[in-house]
Amino acid sequence: MSFASLGLMPALVRAVAEQGYAQPSPIQAQAIPAALRGQDILATAQTGSGKTAAYALPLMQALLSRRAEPHPRKTQALVLVPTRELAVQVGELLRALVPAVALPPRVALLFGGVSINPQLMGLRGGAEIVVATPGRLLDVIEHNALSLGQVQTLVLDEADRLLDLGFAEELARVLALLPAQRQLLLFSATFAPAVQELAQRLLKPDALRIALDEQTEAAPDIVQRAIAVDAPQRTQLLRHLIVSEAWPQVLVFVATQYATELVAHKLARVGLRAAPLHGELSQGARSEALAAFKAGELQVLVATDLAARGLHIARLPVVVNYDLPRAAADHTHRIGRTGRAGESGLAVSFVSAATEAHWRLIEKRCGLPRTPREQIAGFEPTEVATPEQAVGGVKSSTRKSKKDKLREAQAAEAAAAADTKPKR
Ligand code: AMP
Fold this sequence. Notes:
CATH architecture of the largest domain: 3-Layer(aba) Sandwich
Helix content: 25-40%
Bound molecules: adenosine monophosphate
Radius of gyration: 22 Å
Largest sheet: 7 strands, parallel
């Protein structure tokens, strides 16, 4: 199958060829024709399956074919993403796919943590496509620098996160600014049933649902290992594995911001090129760490779940769950950072007596065969689980982060303020 046979115009077919894409991935083959017809889409597809281009190409084609009058440039497509890093990554891919045509469409990026002024300046003269995190988008709109009144297509990338409670208030405000008639494209690797219900209310009745199962989609080739180890031995074991198994690069997930700093510091002290990544670092430090890791200058990136979703790190060979994820869906997102775009990958989870029951539930919910608990010589565990730990379990995926709690508090405050306003 070719990109041309999906109905893409020659300029876009050339643009994908320049990216080195030989043929459409399964998600692209299904989503592109439907999106070109203007249908709404709810797509569940594994990470690394080519989701970004699956919505980017139809967006681009729709606005190029409407393009009789290019000025002023009106924002016709809005792509919302949950994190700044993802905004940058999606923006880069969209810009790479802009075809070589006269007056090529402009892509603007809006995300928080950096000064708003350059972003406001960048919107002068307009941008047909805007990629944004919800909070910064609303700030920019409050500055009267952008109108969403002409948006024809809204994309929610990592849609389940954006439809989650933490973003509910911001998302409702954005939706209220869009025209009533607009195309909605929802993409994510995971959709919890409650989120599906919410999505249902936003999608048109004839929306196309795409759920690529493992038979049709080239399942990422990720080997999963679970290593039994006592918690205090984990950093030593990590170092041992990096060296003895000659891992060229590894993304390590830990539970807290503090742990990212601590583990990265300990690894750096023994001579590994390691750095932390978490949400309290300055945007400059976040971008720098990620760029250095992507460029292969860092060998180890120790991150919170900030790095779990959507990020594409080319040829990342290994992901480690130093701390297990809270929910099974987080596990899917975390390990999806490796084994991308047809490469193979390795996902290693450290399991202690205290977290054994939790890991068993993750295995069950992710449909994994029960992985044998490996033991590494010199790191054999000695701890035993307490009775409570032995019962254990996956914590609800709706457990809220600090940021989510803050957003909710702000939403409650706004609602209370609205309630106290005199009603006409
Ligand atoms: P995504 O799932 O959108 O994050 O894409 C993962 C990676 O796959 C990105 O580096 C894309 O550039 C690449 N990619 C997307 N579509 C294709 C394709 N049809 N052929 C080869 N690589 C692709």
